[in-house]
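User: what does the whole thing look like in 3D?
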Amino acid sequence: MTTIKCDIVSAEDAIYSGDVTMVIASGVAGELGIAPRHAPLITRLKPGQVRVHHTDGSEQEFYVSGGILEVQPNLVSVLADTAIRAKDIDEAAAIKAKEEAENLLKDSNKQYDLAKVQADLAKAVAQIQAISRLKKKLKR
Amino acid sequence: MAVGREIVTKIKSVQSTRKVTTALEMVSASKIKKAQDQMETSRPYVRKIKEMINHLAQATPEYKHPFMHDQKADRVGYIIISTDRGLCGGLNAGLFKQTVISMRDWENQGKKIDVVTVGNKATSMFKNSSVNLKANISSLGDNPKLTELIGVVKVMLDAYSAGELSHVYLAYNDFINTMTQAPTVDQLLPLPKGDEAVARDNWDYLYEPDAKEVLDNLMTRYIESLVYQGVLENLASEHAARMVAMKSATDNASDLIKDLQLVYNKARQAAITQEISEIVSGAAAV
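Assistant: Here's the predicted 3D structure for the full assembly of 426 residues, as structure tokens:
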């Protein structure tokens, strides 16, 4: 039986890799069934299942929250997203990151900077040590 | 006997410091393996995307993605990845030095700098400097997720797409091995020209829905995964640097304890000798 190599990877994880007889996925333009020697193709995936058929006839399912599917004659690669992506969700994340920075800049006067305080403390301790050492020397 | 009371206290305090540094060293040693594994698993994804982009860029010459060509703007963006916590030797300091050198170059050419920071250390370094802090994310922990980075990356990509930035750089510590981490400042955008002059066979993908949309999508994913990769490299570097720093701190503490012990023993011996000689001379006088 002819097989096609299938790799499912995300940026955080290698999810699946192996030889299969068929890959079924839901692209943005509709369901796709990919058999060996399919024409080269790139498509975006909708959030949904990716099913692979093993050579022994069994089936395995993976859930992907979107991504990209690439087909080459002997290889199917699924680049899975790690989370559901939508324009407004991305936008919200960007806004949050911006706000975080703004808050930091606003508070920089009030909120004491831990690293700076630590450095000041270390300096003070060193000074005290130096003074006490000097005192001891003078006593002798 | 009251001899060397201060020395004993000092020895005690150094010993407890040594306990802390030993513990930190062991924690980092156990975490470094996991960080390295994570780094490895994310590599195929980046490689794959890169291949596709190279191919797509050749397949559709009439559509040039903005990330691919140079644009004129008077600002330059930096995404700076640092650790959240200290006690990792000169890891962050080395990276910031490298970054600031690169920034100076641009400033000398009259450009302004925009910065996006990942991690507490970079934030506290750059929030009080002359650069413009646009966005920030910190406390990613030992298991960073790509989703957490989407926001900060998007801030930069949007600014670039809007024509506000002429270049975007990524600064992070490249993990080479446990002993070596290299502070790295890489150009993210515009994408460095690939060496893809190699003539390919005349085949092309079928695109769904179309090449432009797929390419747009791929680009964002690609940059995100590069930044994510940087975060993972930096995390592994952090643990490695901390392990080494804490190892040498532990060694130093041990040396210090040895020296102090010697001083203490000498002082004690001197006191005893003195006491004996006093007794002897006292007895002789009688």
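In plain terms: Strands of chain B lie at 75-81, 112-118, 132-137, 165-175, 181-189, 206-208. Helices of chain B lie at 5-59, 91-108, 120-126, 150-161, 211-285.
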